[in-house]
Amino acid sequence: MKQALSIEVFIDFICPWCLIGQRNLQVALEQLRLEQPDVEVTLHWQGVQLLPDMARTGQPFEAFYRKRLGSDEAVRQRQAQVRAAAEAVGVNIDFSRICRMPNTGDAHRLLQRAVALGQPQRAEQLLAQLFAAYFQHGKDLGDPITLLKIARSCDLEPGQVADCLRGDASPFMSSNHRASAGVPFFRFNQLLEVSGAQPAEVLFDVMLEALAVDQVALA
């Protein structure tokens, strides 16, 4: 009898740790497929808007982080830490290209729509393109035109997603997520939870634990 593993992943596109966490999850899933190929995995991507009060046009990126961290030196140190963590898992982050801290409400609505259309591979492609657009190319994820271009690159038609791109800074209301948990946040089979960009081996071990717990429950 095949086992099922449901994984909910809560993310925001402006969080570099979510990008790193996504990569670590991919590595853990590759290991699971090698060691337990009969397990049927279902991924559920859930958006969490970290800055729901962000202005429609966003804020200057450097000024935002200078205010948050207190100084230019603190910003440099934090970015160096994040770049090193990203490079360690084969992910490129180019902070020099990011001009604005965007309002991500529409980006979350876009991903939610891609998921609702019932095409998991397309939703995964969209997620990857949104991360790449922001962290590698410095695109403004609060701009509806930019989001529409990204959607079309993933074979999503304007008629399927146009109503998601409101451009009015209306907050994205996420569900089934504790605000205190932060992102990235992982929930396995509705049983076990992990917070933060944990290493792939940690995520893999939690997957095995969730499967073991589920197997005991079915026995």
Automatic annotation (TrEMBL):
Pfam families: DSBA. GO terms for molecular function: oxidoreductase activity. It comes from the Bacteria. Residues 7-203 form the DSBA-like thioredoxin domain. This is DsbA family oxidoreductase. It comes from Pseudomonas auratipiscis.
